[in-house]
Input
Amino acid sequence: MSDSPLLTAALVVSLLLLCWYLVGMQYNIRRGRRALKWIEQGLPVIGEKAALNWSGVSQVQIHITQAKEPFRSADVLIQLKPRELPFWWFWQPRAPTHDLLILRAQLHHAPGFDLVSHSPRVPADEQLKRHGVGQWNAVQGGLANAMNADLRGALSPYTVNRLIVQTTLEGMTLTRLIVRRAAPNLEVHYLLPKFEQVSPQRLFTILHQLGEEILQV
Output
């Protein structure tokens, strides 16, 4: 009989954890489906023949097999907070703390510079600068969206700022802009927006224009 309070407590905790998992899973599935429906309206701007892959309930990848110029290939990722995992911020400290929309693309030829930039909302990722040859230099001067940027290559601060401005869209919060000589050549991170406030066609149009501008500088 002395064990019954402990057994009751264990059952209550197990039930709460199960409820947490179910509620978090259902929320992420609904949010992921809404994001997919929104994204699909703009995808034809950058390519056709998309393949869909769910990784659990917290990540969806759309692989575009027939990308349009200037892209050779492209992937769009929806990365959600792992709400289905109880106390996920403790068990997975590196898990995303926001719901993200990510574009990763390979351009038809490699750009002539490397750029790593991030907003104050997210930490710098030093691993991005460990590959390749050459010295990284911090971009001086105020950049749009209060972005921080490091550059490897002959690019002026004005041009770096122009690329950041090109990536900016009202209603979308830019958190990372990464350009690399190595594939993927382009990576753009946004916070997942309020879908009714942003045109997906406009978003993918500016990303298409960004790819063209990167190859021109």
Remarks:
- Helices lie at 4-40, 88-91, 157-166, 200-216.
- The chain has one domain: 4-216.
- Residues 4-40 form the longest helix (37 residues).
